[in-house]
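Every protein is a chain of amino acids, and every chain bends into a shape of its own. The protein below has been through that process, and both of its lines are reproduced in full.
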Amino acid sequence: MSAAALPGYCKAFPLAEFRRFPGWAAAAAPAQAGLGDDDLGYLGDDFAVRADPVTGEPLLFGGDAAGWREFCTAELGFAVPADLADTADSENQGGQRNG
């Protein structure tokens, strides 16, 4: 995985927290099966869960299951901190070209 594909922000949670999501077992990657409930997963601003926030590998959960984003925000309280979101927005706007 290239660094460009990594999320800009991530937050660690014990896998037990992610596994509370009803669709986790059906959609999780095989790599997560060997990890315990106390092992950490890193939830990125793209809503994917990775085992390593630096390399992005392995991917534990793709983040596209129905209801997943709502679970992350409502149940886990996941949100990109406002000061980081503002920084990312201003950097993205500065690098965009129109036309």
User: Anything to note?
Assistant: Residues 3-95 form one domain. Strands lie at 10-14, 40-44, 49-50, 59-61.
